[in-house]
Write a structure and sequence with these properties.
The complex is a heterodimer of chains A (about 130) and B (about 230). With about 130 residues, chain A is α+β, with helices and mostly antiparallel strands. Chain A is built from 2 helices and 6 strands; from the N terminus they run αβαβββββ. The longest helix of chain A has 16 residues, at about 5-20. Chain B has a single domain, classed as 3-Layer(aba) Sandwich (Rossmann fold), CATH 3.40.50. The longest helix of chain B has 16 residues, at about 15-30. The structure holds guanosine-5'-diphosphate (GDP), magnesium ion and zinc ion (ZN) (2 copies).
């Protein structure tokens, strides 16, 4: 079960983003979890609560959004939901998919926090880092 | 005052970055990493014992690192081959991460090492999510584990660059349906090579070393569709 490692990473990354921006407390963290990412949302929510204890995220809510697996076949242009267990073979061409469009996400999307009442930080700069 | 910030950060970005750095560093040293994943008891250590022995006979500079929750037993078994071996105890952690591996290699990895085999913690769930800077990811399953293993652990099998079926000597007694197993692998990871091995009969001897050397020589390794994520 690596949901604890994942939860600790989430807390760590949110703390790192929140601190320089003067965040006081974190209310909510939204995470996208692909169907094929190998992470169980309920287990992550459980671990998240533990991982938040004693940090700026204490009491924060974790909102998870599941992203279905979607494959694409370039030769015939077909796209399909891979399902679970995933089917990566194009039903028309009987060949392997060219690409997995979605389904492997494990990404923090949004953080909702309250700014410190005394010293509001600078305007938030959205950070991006692609997987 | 509250604000919502669009963070868009991959949760495992730190590991992916550490793995990338490790891969670059090791490639510069002429070392290729092979990451071995399977359930406990599939035969990772047994296969490695045999393949390390072959490496030694062929004069290949090889090393092995084995990770377990507890005991040094696997390192003791692997060390009999005569190649440098390191045991890592993960202290309860169910998988290796790239920075942990880098830390263990730092003051141990002999120079030169052409092939470094890493026996991951026996577990088909968590290790699948962590790139270790390997150039070849191998997933093993024994004939006694059932033909539907690839469907039960799609992330592990879906990201494999080589699938090894172990204990083929037991295929008969276990009524192992090879065609069904291959079809299940193909469904989650079209095009990946599946090879049968047995340390009892010698079937598939040297296949791990051969594929590792091919990867080390820069030959194209299989690119699983699951790893070709668009997002
Ligand atoms: N019959 C048979 N048994 C094997 C084979 N490979 C491994 N085993 C046995 O399977 C058990 C687990 O093997 P081990 O290498 O420790 O698995 P690991 O946990 O994946 O490292 C041991 O009792 C081995 O002797 C094989 O090819 N044939
Ligand atoms: Mg072992
Ligand atoms: Zn785990
Ligand atoms: Zn098609």
């Amino acid at each position: 079960m690596h949901e604890m490692s994942v939860a600790l990473s989430v807390v760590d990354q949110v703390e790192q983003a929140a601190r320089p921006q003067g965040a006081h407390g974190v209310r909510r963290v939204a995470v996208e979890i692909g169907e094929l990412a190998g992470v169980v949302p309920d287990a992550l929510a459980f671990c998240f609560e533990l991982a938040c204890a004693g940090t700026r995220l204490e009491g924060a809510e974790l909102v998870t959004r599941s992203v279905p697996g979607r494959a694409h076949c370039t030769p015939c242009g077909r796209g399909w939901d891979t399902g679970m267990p995933p089917d990566m073979i194009c039903a028309v061409c009987r060949a392997g998919a060219t690409e997995l469009l979605t389904g492997r996400e494990l990404r923090i999307t949004e953080v909702h926090w309250s700014a410190a009442p005394t010293a509001p930080g600078p305007a938030p700069v959205p950070q991006s880092e692609e997987s | 005052m509250c604000r919502t910030v669009d963070l868009r950060q991959a949760v495992l970005a730190k590991n992916t970055m550490a793995a990338g750095i490790l891969r670059t560093e090791l490639t510069a040293r002429g070392t290729t990493v092979v990451n071995l994943l399977s359930s406990p008891g599939s035969g990772k250590t047994a296969l490695l014992e045999r393949e390390l022995q072959l490496c030694r006979e062929r004069g290949l500079a090889t090393a092995a690192l084995t990770a377990d929750l507890a005991t040094e037993n696997d390192a003791t078994r692997l060390a009999r081959s005569g190649v440098p071996v390191k045991q890592v105890l993960t202290d309860g952690l169910c998988h290796l991460e790239a920075d942990m591996l880098a830390g263990h290699l730092h003051d141990w990895l002999p120079d030169p090492t052409r092939l470094l085999f890493v026996e991951n913690v026996g577990n088909l769930v968590c290790p699948a999510s962590y790139d270790l800077g390997e150039s070849l990811r191998v997933v093993l399953a024994s004939v006694t584990e059932g033909e539907d293993k690839p469907l039960k652990y799609p992330a592990a099998f879906g990201l494999a660059q080589l699938v090894i079926v172990t204990k083929s000597d037991l295929a008969g007694p276990a009524a192992f349906d090879e065609a069904a197993f291959r079809a299940h692998v193909e469904r989650v990871n079209p095009g990946v090579e599946v090879v049968l091995t047995s340390v009892r009969t010698g079937e598939g001897a040297g296949v791990l070393v051969d594929r590792a050397l091919a990867a080390a020589d820069g030959e194209r390794v299989h690119a699983p569709v699951m790893a070709r994520a668009g997002a």
